Amino acid sequence: MQLNAQQVYLLFQRLGFGADYPTIKSNIGKTPEAIFYQYDAFDAPLQLSFEPIALSEMQSLSEEEKEALKKTARQGVIDLNLLWLEKMSASKAPFREKMALFWHGHFACEDKNPVFVQNYCNVLRKNAFGNFRDLVFYIAKDAAMLRYLNNQQNRKKQPNENFARELMELFTLGRGNYTEKDVQEAARAFTGWSFEPGTGDFIKRENLHDNNEKVFFDKHGNLDGDDIINTILDKKECAYFIAKKFLKYFLSEHPDPTLVSEYGAELFNNGYDMEKLTLKLISSEVFYREENRFQKIKSPVELIAQINRLIPLTYDQPKIQLAVQRGLGQILFHPPNVAGWKGGNNWIDSSTMTFRFYLPQFLWGTQIANFSSKESGDDNDPFQLSDLSQYKATPDWDAFAKNIAANDKIGIIREISEWFLGYPIDPQKISFFITASDKKSICQSVAERIIQLPEFQLS
Predict the structure, then answer these.
(1) Closest CA to 306 of 7, 23, 2
(2) Residue 404 placed within a domain
(3) Does the pLDDT of residue 75 top 60, yes or no?
(4) For the chain, how many structural domains are there in total?
(5) 170-227: pLDDT as tens digits
(6) pTM here?
(7) How far apart are CA 6 and CA 422, in angstroms?
(8) Which of 275, 174, 277 shows the shortest CA–CA distance to 232?
(9) DSSP letter (8 states) at residue 307
(10) Range of the structural domain that residue 31 is part of
């Protein structure tokens, strides 16, 4: 299967964050597999310098030193947010970053320790197209997740059920595929699973583990967390649950039940190989069907990353992108709860739709958007923002215009719309608003106007 221009566009939209014009053109005629392997490689882990602090050292600090450390930690999480967004916007492996973003919503997690956040994010990125079974084990032993779901408080005779419950309800099986008794028994199996406070390294505190017999589904004995995870992954319901979320994210908000069954069976039979499942989808006719196009509302992070990829931008203060994330309702490493972001139509309301419309002008400072940044009121919120109206991004319209072959207004509209939307729109739809006369200014006006179209908000 060799892809035409429209199909290449759709592949980069759905599996990535869009692409610049040369990338679209250079991949026309290639197979989905060839394109996938060109843009899925793990380029490098997120790597900022954070010195782990042992608990004993933390306890010896003065109150002023503790406050300074907290401030540094908050800034560290912000830096990681922007670094990962930069990867999504510029990395040569956009497919991997998009898949990691999918897992961030699936294994939603938040922590104030930048060491833990960095480790968590790199686990998602490194294993994005790996084996789902392996990824569940990594996440179940991840310090940020164990702390987020209170498993460091899970000990024999006083089991904490939070982690065990969310593991089944949100991460693997979904409601209706387990009982309260299963949650209770699983919680006992995870007693003692914890982490080193400084490094985040996983440890199993044997003195806190419940060594008594447990009954979990059809398994009996002194089960531990590994046994619980393997038992869950051996159930077909898990594969179908993951396949449905995968299709909902990459294909349609309401995937055909027959397709869910087909992809669930594929995932179970291939041993939870997410790369094989992804290749099956992008090599299928259904992925490129007209009926599945423009069915998904881009998330705020997807929208920012795509604009960054389409238009050469220089940010005088990259943290303005935090204002966009907060204003549109999706902040990396700051999910609303363990269920993650609802997505779909929930991305849009009267406030966010207005902000999306004025987003280009807000970013490059030509107009201040009327929006609420939705401050949390929590002084410890690492994403609490001050006034960012003095910051902006500077587009390089000269570089942008060099990618456009057309020189007349009608031709430029058709060319940029085909690049931004995957098809050439009727020029009359926006030509009235384009009053510039030189090519660079026409390109700027057309790009801004197309970004404001409802179609641009969809993929």
Answers:
(1) 23
(2) yes
(3) yes
(4) 2
(5) 999 999 999 999 999 999 999 999 999 888 999 999 999 999 999 999 999 999 999 9
(6) 0.95
(7) 5
(8) 174
(9) H
(10) 1-37
